[in-house]
Every structure is written in structure tokens, then in C-alpha cells.
Amino acid sequence: MNTLPSLLDGIDQRLIAALQRGSRSSMADVARLAGVARGTAYSRLDRLEAEGVIIGYGPDIDPGRAGYGVTAFCTLDILQGSHDKTTAALAAISEVIEVHTVTGVGDLLCRIIARSNDHLHEVLQQIAALPEVMRSQTQLALNTSHRRSVAEVVSLEVA
User: Fold this and answer.
1) Given 44, 56, 74, 120, which is the most exposed site by the fewest CB atoms within 10 A?
2) Contact 14, 36 (CB under 8 A)
3) CB 99 within 8 A of CB 110
4) How many domains does the chain have?
């Protein structure tokens, strides 16, 4: 995968904005909303997928309404040289929905969703059992007062 940032031009931004407004729309509708020909929409979206800019078309799910009402952030200190092995092990835990390599305190920051505090405890025990994890610190999110998708950020640039 290309790790260089992709520069999105106005057409790319309009296509992403059109997808954000109606991800279940036909390609003809997406092209119309973006103000481009259908062939242009196809080729641009194919390129954005190949470059890893667009990584999926699925629905944006509210975790709480889907039964996962507990969100936590867990900072991990890991053994030196164990980054890849640890991130792979964390990715295998379905409730760990994001893993970030960070600066400052800790090495990794994980976003975790769970059905209850007891369920979160089980997930944290799985993480603590990983031999590469030396220490963890967990914070519970009491409320999510603001949430925005990357597609919305890109869409706002063309608004």
C-alpha cells in the first residue's frame, strides 16, 4: 500500500462528498452529484481505492445502538521490538477497533468497544495476557459529544 499522502483534487473531493451523502446511490447518481461523467466517476473511484484513500463502502454504525455501549481507550507500553507482533495480536481481538502508534506516554493507543463493563474487563484481560504488553492504562469514555468521519472532513472542504 502507498504510504505517501494522496492529494485530493476538487473532483475527488466532490466524489467523496457524493458518496457521503448517499453511499447506496447508483454510480450515475454519484457522478451527477459530483458533476462529472459516469466514466470519470468510475475511474476516479477506482484510483482512490487502489491508492488506499477509499478503504470501504459499508455503513457507519453507532456502537451504542449496536449493543456496544462502552467505549474505552487503552494506552499500552510494549516490549521493545515487538510492535508488529503486538499490533497483529491486538487486531485479532474483535473489540479492539483501532490501534495507533503514538508518541509521549505509552507506545500504542487502542480504542475498544464493549457491551458492558464486565465485557470490557474480559477484553482488557485478553490484552494484558499478551506477553509483549508490559503495562496498560485504560480510560472510559463517559460520552461521545462529537464524532466525524474522514469522508465528512473531505466533504466539508468542498462545501
Assistant:
1) 56
2) yes
3) yes
4) 2
* pLDDT tens profile 55-92: 887 777 889 889 999 999 999 999 999 999 999 999 99
d(C-alpha 86, C-alpha 92), whole Å: 10
Contact 19, 30 (CB under 8 A): yes
Tell the burial category of 23 from Cβ atoms under 10 Å away from its Cβ (0-12, 13-18, 19+).
Answer: middle
Q: Are 30 and 18 in contact (CB under 8 A)?
A: yes
Predicted confidence (pLDDT) per residue in 98-154, tens digit: 999 999 999 999 999 999 999 999 999 999 999 999 999 999 999 999 988 887 887
**Same domain membership, residue 77 and residue 118:** yes
Q: Are residues 77 and 51 in the same domain?
A: no
Q: What are phi and psi of 134, to 5 degrees?
A: -90, -35
Do residues 53 and 75 both lie within one domain? no
Domain span holding position 53: 10-59
For the chain, give me the number of helices (H) and strands (E)?
6, 4
Is the domain of 41 the same as that of 89?
no
Does 146 fall in a domain?
A: no
